[in-house]
Amino acid sequence: MDNREEIRERAEALLRRFYGYSSFRPLQLDIISSAVEGRDSVVLMPTGGGKSICYQIPALMSEGGITIVVSPLIALMKDQVTALRSNGIPAAAVNSMQTDEENRHILEQLFSGRIKIVYISPERLLMEIDRWSRDLPVSLIAIDEAHCISQWGHDFRPDYTRLSRIKELFPHVPVMALTATADRLTRDDIATQLALRNPQLFLGSFDRPNISLRVRNNPGKKERIRYISTLIERYRHDAGIVYCISRKAAESMNDDLRALGYRSVVYHAGLPVAERNLAQEKFINGDVQVVCATVAFGMGIDKSNIRWVVHNNMPRNIESYYQEIGRAGRDGVKAEAVMFYSYSDIITLQSFVDESGQQSINAEKLKRMREFAEASLCRRRILLSYFNETMDHDCGNCDVCLNPPERMDGTVIAQKAMSAIIRTEGQAGFSMLIDILRGAARQDLMLRGFHLIKTYGAGRDLSYAEWNCYLSQLIQLGLVDIAYNESNHLKVTQYGAEVLRERREVTLARYKEPERLKGGRRRVAVEEEFTELKPAERLLAQLKEVRQKLARKEQVPPYIVLSDKVLLELVRVEPTDMEAFSKVEGVGEKKTIRYWKPFVTAIRKFKGVAEPLGTGLSHEETLLLLNAGYDVGEIAATKGIKERTVYGHIAGLIRDGKLSDFSSVITREQYLRVMAVAKENPEEMYTILADEMPPGLPGVALAISDYLLRQKDK
């Protein structure tokens, strides 16, 4: 067997045992093999693409070595450590949110070899790095959010640049740099800044096909609230995020949703730390349905059942947009990403660009974001193209693909708009121009004499929303421009003037009325009667209740117990015993032992299974518990059966060739004693040994003898 094949077998066994998955996702095994072989690497995978497995499995494969994970995100550290421990993997984090005593205790465990994976911030690592390089047997160093080290990255952090010391002090330890968002320039710079040695590049697909993409051009505040309400109600047992451009906007959105009766919280950097932490904790634990936040929220959130993300304003670049929508659907189940877009966003974001230290870079990134928002082509293809990934077909899961715009002759509309701009001498902004065209009686409009121009009221036949849609398209087509340096007034471009003068035809996408809640309902009850739901939906709701109770009891987020994807698989498979539960994708050994009984009980009750739970323990279940470290007494107690029965299962497993490590069941001395008595007095063997060892253990020794003879014959 070659080295790669051996790595694959060991890695797959660990994946099944600790994580409950039967196979790796694309690139994961290649990345793991590279790390085990001692190679540096740069890994680009989408949010939710399984990056953490790429360094966690090598950590488990290392005998005696420690894996250091560098992360700037305390929330991520906490989530990852909780998830690892729930899977039976010894992990811990060292960070500023813990007391000095807590951190000291963790470091003691680290140096005593009781921790396999340690998460740490870059600042704290640089404080510890000299001592660790001398005294710790480090097998792998993973640097998460690695784009932070590059000045070309969208979230550059100067402290990260000092991480180049890692290769100076750990020259022979493989370093894995991981990120979800980096273009070609950024990923090359990551390798340079970290001084990686001939790193392998692993470029996963940036496509998240389970997330639908939608952009809506400024539907107005009332319609935005209505749309968000439909999302909350559609995913009433799950969660969503509304990203806002400012703290004030986030607070206003939160107030509006709470007024409608929804469980919402607000999160932004201006709140006290305790208030921010409480909001995040409520969101993670499923106590609220939605968080209204600025971009300060979400980094490191590993919550798997975020079903939707709404951008109330356009993000400043595609990297941020991609990272933020990636917080939805991390479990691979369908999710929605919706962006509301207006020209006031462009104006605000342009001011951010003007005040930034990298105007040319940020201006170009904003331009690409705007092109995405205004696109009439498949949005996913545009998004993937930004990250240098080609898609040769439309995705079928974005608004452009699902509902292609209807084209119309917009020549007269364009003529009216551009004529009005010219007659105001380019002194009207977006909103003012629409009011001129619709003949609004605004005082400021009349004071400036705009009610006297020929085109005043020439567009009364169209609503404000229609004019908003069509005027936006005229800007997208390059007929009209926004003069950001002149109070954001609208100007007719040279191209627009030619079109107007030569009366060229202008084709526009016809305005569509936004979807509205049926019956005009503004709020429905969060909990529906089970009788109104389909059987699978009823079972899923019941399993979520079981999960919620377990999560509260253990004081962990519900998705740490089991993800939504696993719950859906339980609904599909409907396991009615421990063995069937253990084979569900995403359920490892530790979670099987801890959670099988409450979930299987709920499923059996739903299916109307009359037989009481636990009237026996199959050989496979015994094997599962043995592999998880349970001794014979603990296995017997788990199901309330005799130890003799457990020994009988073990003997059967050995005869079937399913158990070849007997050290935790019988000692060499016990085995030799049984063999000696069996040879001298086989008929009285069990009577003679009754006072020396547990009933059933002699049968295990005989099964081992048979097994060894068969192995010898081979």
Automatic annotation (TrEMBL):
Keywords per UniProt: ATP-binding, DNA damage, DNA recombination, DNA repair, DNA-binding, Helicase, Hydrolase, Isomerase, Metal-binding, Nucleotide-binding, Zinc
Judging by the UniProt lineage, the source's domain of life is Bacteria
Which ranges carry the Helicase ATP-binding domain?
Answer: 32-200
The record ties this protein, via Pfam families, to: DEAD, Helicase_C, HRDC, HTH_40, RecQ_Zn_bind, RQC
List, in alphabetical order, the GO biological process terms annotated in this UniProt record. DNA recombination; DNA repair; DNA replication; SOS response
Under PROSITE patterns, the record lists: HELICASE_ATP_BIND_1, HELICASE_CTER, HRDC
Coiled-coil stretches are none
This protein's GO CC annotations:
bacterial nucleoid; cytoplasm; replisome
User: Which Enzyme Commission number(s) are on file for it?
Assistant: 5.6.2.4
Query: Can you name one GO molecular function term for this protein?
Result: ATP binding
Show the catalytic activity.
Couples ATP hydrolysis with the unwinding of duplex DNA by translocating in the 3'-5' direction
Q: Where is the Helicase C-terminal domain?
A: 227-373
Q: Which InterPro entries match?
A: DEAD/DEAH_box_helicase_dom, DNA_helicase_ATP-dep_RecQ, DNA_helicase_ATP-dep_RecQ_bac, Helicase_ATP-bd, Helicase_C-like, Helicase_HTH, HRDC-like_sf, HRDC_dom
The cofactor named in the record is: Mg(2+); Zn(2+)
Q: Where is the HRDC domain?
A: 533-613
Q: Which family does it belong to?
A: Belongs to the helicase family. RecQ subfamily.
What name goes with this protein? DNA helicase RecQ
